[in-house]
Amino acid sequence: MKDVLIKARTLSTGKIVYEYRFEIASVDGKRKWKSKSGFKTKTEAREAGKLAQQAYEHVGQPIEPSNMSYADFLDQWLEMDCKLNCKASTLQGYEKKIRLYIKPALGEYRLKAITKNNLQDFITKMYNDGFSRNTISSVKGLLTKSFDFALDRHYITMTPATRLTIPTKMQPKNKTRTKKHVYIPQNIMNKIFERFPEGSSAYIPLIIGYHTGLRLGEIYALVWEDIDFKNKTLSVNRQVQWETGEERTKEEKKKANGTSESNGFWYFSAPKYNSYRTIEIDDVLVEALKKEYNKQIKARAYYDEYYNKYYCENNMVFSKTDEVLPVNKISQSISQHIVDFVCRREDGSYISPRTAQHTSYIIHTQLNFQEYDTHSLRHTHGTMLSENGADYVYIQRRLGHKDLKTTMEIYTNHLTDTIKEKGVTTLNSLYM
Hints:
Strand order of the largest sheet: 6-7-10-9-11
Structural class: alpha+beta
Mean pLDDT: 86
Number of strands: 11
Low-confidence stretches: none
Largest sheet: 5 strands, antiparallel
Number of domains: 3
Strand content: 5-15%
Radius of gyration: 26 Å
């Protein structure tokens, strides 16, 4: 197999990109080449070319993996499988864990030489190094999926990633790295709403998070069709996420006067774990949303043609049975699919999840509550439900947890003053 050739090309804009090229079967006695251009670096072009060449040389037959490292195989798996079947955010998570954890530990070994003992030792070492159970479980899933793909493509004759276990009966050598679930006391919540009162851009996202426990992407993906004022319910039908797009060149940045504008965009996708759900909302939140809705109706009339409007490329999803596309791009380019966001400013401009970073910064610096992040609103809501006797099945379904075990692990390990007081009252009543 001949080497992949790399060549620099200069576009009409002056931008330099790289092209890979390799020879393929001749036709009518004439030499033929397969090529692709547009890569930012030589390394990127060479890696893509190697994958393309390998796919060409072995089309329709099993690849002999004797010289393939696990690192190279993982790149191929991401390209040939994950990019076709995963959401952009999921793919980014895969790439990050592979880069940080799997490749440094296992990447240099040949694919076919890795044994179950190698993988189990790796999992156990992560446990002893103090990684959280969620992180280890996620990495374990990547090992299983990647070797299943290798088996399916006949790169290996059997997978070593079977019945791998995360230790439970032994103490890790280093303290487990777990992110603390933060409960926001009532006095702090009062200060937060004093700092971000009705009319501020943070108020509606804050009150929705505090009163429903929705995830960040679910809050900012809400449209008015998701709110049922008559029955006092809110439906979670999607989440909003950011696609970074391609990095701009210096020339492109100059055209925008050096601003930080990017080629990225917001898009709708299915809720995490496909946790479509319709939940009840309390009277306080209903009233706040009604006021916001009426305010937006008046603002739309006042601004008229200057009111900011948003659209998505494909149908909005309002049911788990609707066809869900992994990426439904949102923009201000007119289409038949209107997006009537709940979170928007007076002129109709979208209040995006990025504003939550500013809200957190203000709460950290001005209110001196360093533990706060948007997820703590979700945890506080769940804790308040638990404090007041809500069944764990109800909490699980309301918060959209993947399973009941997750809910139980979080809310049976959190002791607030209210839960403690109720426990003491129950204890005293046992022997009366």
